Amino acid sequence: MADPLSFFNSLTHTPLFTSRIKTKVKLEQVYDVSNHVLGTGISGAVRIGHHRQSRRQVAIKTLCLSAMAPKRTLMLYNEVAIYLQVDHPNICKLLEVFKGHKRIHLVMELCTGKELYDRLARKKRYSEKDAGRVTRQMLSAINYCHQRHICHRDLKLENWVFRDDSDDAPLKLIDFGFSRIFHPGVRMTAMHGTVYYVAPEVMDGKYNEKCDLWSIGVIVYMLLSGSPPFTGHGDQEILIKIRRCKYNMDGPRWRGISEQAKHFIASLLRRNPEERPSAEEALKHPWLVAAEKEALADTEIDVSVLKSMQRFAACSAIKRASLALIAMSMNAQQLDDLERLFRKIDIDNSGCIKMDRMVAVLVTFLDVPRDEALRIFQRIDQTRAEEINYSEFLAATLQTRIALNQQLIREAFERFDVDNSGHISLENLRYVLGDSYDSLSVEEILRQCDRKQNGVIEFDEFMLALTGDESGVLESGNSMDLVAQGAALTAQVSRNMSELADAVLAKRFTDSSSSSSADLHGLGVEHACTPPNSSRDASTMPK
C-alpha cells in the first residue's frame, strides 16, 4: 500500500482542497490554542482556539499521525476528504486543516451547546414539537449527504451537537469517521456503527445508505420516549432484538404521542430496508410537514437580501473569491435569519436551492425579467450544478449582515498568502484557486490587481481591489457592499466531487479493507459509549 502521507499530499494540491488545507503555515501562526479541552478521543484532544486576527473562537482537533496505524490514518484522510465536500447548515463546518509530518490539526466550527444525548438526559424526553424540529434538521443533513452519495454509518445522539445553549439552537452533525462515498446499487459490507443504533442489515454485511434512516428512527424513538427501542442485559441480547426488529410503542411513555409520530418511527424501523423511505421521502411525512410549516410561518422573504444577490452578480472575481473565504468563517449566530430564509426558499429540503425556484423568487420579489434573474443565479451558482448550496447563498447575501473592515481584509489576504511571504504570488493564487477562477486565468486576476507591476499582490493592492479605497485605510466599522461577492471559492469544493470519490475509492477507502479497530465481539460494531472507557450506556438514559 502506498504511503498514506504521500497520497494525502497529492490530494491537497487540487482546487478541491487547497482553499482550506494548509501545509506551509503552522497552526500557531494563525490561531492561539488554549488549554481548555472540550473533549478527548482515541487519537487526540479537542481544544478551543482563537484566530489571532479576528479573535474568532473555533474548535481545534489535534491528532498525532505518528501514533496512528496505517489503517487508522487512511480512515482519518477519508473523513477529512468527505468533510471538505459537505456544505449544509446542519453539518458542523470544517474550516481549515493544518497538516504537518507528525500532527494534523482540524479547525472546526465551535459548537458550545451540548450533545443531543446530554439534552435528552436533562429533559428526560422531548415534546413532539421539539422532537419534530430536531428531526427535520437531522433528516435535512442526511438527505443532503445521501444526494451526494455519502453514507454516514454512525448516526447517534452523541454525533449531533447544538451550536449553542439556546433552546432553539440549530443542530449540527459531527464525526464523519465511519462515513464513506457509495455508488448507487452497490452494497456496503463493512460493519460499523454503535450497538443501540445499528441497522439489522449492517450485521448481515450487505446494506445501503438506508442504514442511516434506521438510526434516525432509533434517535426519534429515544427523543419521544426517553429510552432506546432495543434494550438488553448485554450487547449480544440487544443485537438479537435488533435482528428480530422487536420493539413496541405501548405503555405510559407513549400516552399522548400522536399516531402520526408513531407511524413515522415505524416507517424508519422496518426490518427490510427497501420498505423504509429515503431521507427525501421521510421529510415529506405528514408529521414533519405540519411542523415545518409552523416553524417557518413567521419567516418572510427579505427583499434587501435578494437585492444583495443582484449586486453580487456584478462583483469582480478576486473580490468574490476573497470574501468567500471570510464568509466561510463568520460567526453562525450572525446568520440565523439568513439560514431561516435559505430553508424557506429550499422548499424540497434538499439542502440546496434549485434553479427554477431561485429564479422564480427573484422574478417575483425583485420584479426583474427572467433573463436577468437567470444571470444572477448563474453568477451565484459557480459549480454550474443548477442549484445554489448553503455557502454560495451566504456568500451572495452576507453584505446585508456583515461590515467589511481592515481586519477581515487582512484575514482574507493571509488565506491567499499560503507561504506567509507577506504578499500574494501567482503560485499562491494557483494553489488556492487552481489555474482559473470564474473563467478568468489566475494570470489575469494577478494582472488586474498588481498595480505596481512587480509580479505580486501586496496588501495595499489587495485592499484596493476589495474596497476601491486608495488610502489603504478602512475604519474597523465601515460598512461595505461586502461578503456577498464570494460564492465561488467554496464552489471549488463541490466542483471536483466525482474526482475525489474516484481517488478515495482507489486508495481503498472502501469496506473491503475497513475492519474497524472498534470491533465488538467480531461484529465490527462500536459499543454505545463515545469516549473510550466511558460509563455512558443505556442505563444512563432517562427511564
TrEMBL record:
This is Calcium-dependent protein kinase CDPK4. One of its GO terms (molecular function) is myosin light chain kinase activity. It is an enzyme of class 2 (transferase). Its EC number is 2.7.11.18. Residues 32-288 form the Protein kinase domain. The keyword Oxidoreductase does not apply. Its cofactor is Mg(2+). Belongs to the protein kinase superfamily. Ser/Thr protein kinase family. CDPK subfamily.
